Amino acid sequence: MAAAHSGFAGVEGTTDVLTFDLAEPGHSGLDVDILVCIDEARRQAAARGHGVERELLLYIVHGVLHCLGHDDHDPAAAARMHAEEDRILESLGVGATFAASRGGEG
After folding, report:
1. Domain region containing 46
2. Are 99 and 82 a contacting pair, CB within 8 Å?
3. pLDDT digits 0-9 by tens, 25-57
4. pLDDT per residue over 6-23, tens digit each?
5. Residue 79, CB half-sphere, CA atoms under 13 Å: how many?
6. Residues 6+ apart with CB under 8 A from 98
7. CATH number of the domain bearing residue 8
8. Could you tell me whether strands 17-21 and 32-36 are parallel, antiparallel, or unpaired per DSSP bridges?
């Protein structure tokens, strides 16, 4: 993942998820590749006290939201994006994951 992060984003070090929006201009559907890091998911899941599957699902939702126009590059945008992640995960029956792992902060 560190090589992909450097090669595609120009950022050294690992990351949790890389998203590639493949949709053609004017395309109404979602066409996306999402690269998730299982090693980072294992580390974060252990630190946050939930299963790796739940952490990976969070990464996938996060990636899809990026392709739908969400951004997390400033604190206010990140808070909105993480709230939407938790809203989606709650609607799927998984429950809030981002905020829950941070003691209710988001």
Report:
1. 2-102
2. yes
3. 888 788 999 999 999 999 999 998 999 999 999
4. 999 999 999 999 999 898
5. 6
6. 58, 82, 85, 86, 106
7. 3.40.390.30
8. antiparallel
Which of 44-82 are b and which e, b meaning 16 or more Cβ less than 10 Å from the residue's Cβ?
Answer: bbeebebeeebbbbbbebbbbbbbeebebeeeeeeeebb
Tokens of 61: 């939702």
What is the tally of structural domains in the chain?
A: 1
Q: How far apart are CA 62 and CA 84, in angstroms?
A: 9
